[in-house]
Amino acid sequence: MANIFPRYSNLIPIQIAICIGSLALGVVIAFSYYATPKTQRVGYMPDQPIPYDHELHVKQLGLDCRLCHSFVEESGHANVPTADRCWTCHQHVKTDSEKLVPLRRAIDKSYEGYTGDPIKWVRIHKSPDYVFFNHSAHLSRGVSCVSCHGQVNEMREVYQAKDHSMGFCLDCHRSPEKHLRPLEEVFNLDYTAKNYVETHPEFAEQLVAFNSDFDATASEEEVQETVGSFIKQHHSVQPKESCATCHR
From the DSSP assignment, how many helices (H) and strands (E) are in the chain? Predict the structure, then answer.
């Protein structure tokens, strides 16, 4: 009896299996990329009720982060400024600016549009509810705002610069020396390890005593690693890597 199906039909199951496998692999690759914090969060820059310019206030005028985020050194959370804080300056500066209408509505009782309603800032950085992160614990050990939020002092509009994924946090916990800096430099967003060593000869001497191979003319990354390693030992920084550290 003649074969009903041609010989090449024996390859059809293999071809189907290859197609299904390729499709499944493509779905996994697409999901692993497009469903990650790097693609879902990085670059998020919502419109705010007041277009607050960090580059102007921080870099040009020299305002310290703690002037507005006043609880960040003592609290687990970084608070946003109240209308009272903004009005401290802006009752005298650019009072009639259209951009400040939401502020005047919130605080200026002499303003005809006064409502007393707080300014509704749009939150940019938000960890999942099951993640515990304490700002004060990191700042008090020499981790700067820049490590997690990027060069905010250069942002005309604040956006999320880092993905804040679990891998992002673990990389820092495993190699904290890449981020640690002297405590007095935590809020200096223009800090570089090389510049600090050059302007603090006594600190440079401590680094040489700590590491006899230290070379202040090395690259920024190498100098930072030595500075960070010294601070890590000096402050007994021992970041945990267990799940219970952040998932509570």
Answer: 12, 0
- Alpha-carbon gap, residue 220 to 10, rounded angstroms: 62
Q: What is the pLDDT of residues 121-164, one digit of tens each?
A: 999 998 888 899 999 999 999 999 999 999 999 999 999 999 99
Which residues, other chains included, contact 165 with Cβ-Cβ below 8 Å and sequence gap of 6+?
Answer: 36, 37, 38
SS3 143: strand
Q: How far is CA 194 from CA 2, 98, 138, 150, 224, in A?
A: 83, 43, 22, 19, 7
Q: What is the DSSP letter of 131?
A: B
Structural tokens at position 116 = 């007393």
Predicted TM-score (pTM) of this structure: 0.81
Q: Which two tokens stand for residue 213?
A: 């191979």
Alpha helix (H) residue ranges in 41-150: 54, 65-68, 83-90, 101-107, 135-139, 145-149
| Residue 223: φ, ψ to 5° | -65, -45
Using CA atoms, how far residue 52 sits from 57, 60, 157, in Å, is: 8, 13, 7
Mean pLDDT of the chain: 91
Residue 200's CB: how many other CB atoms inside 10 A? 15
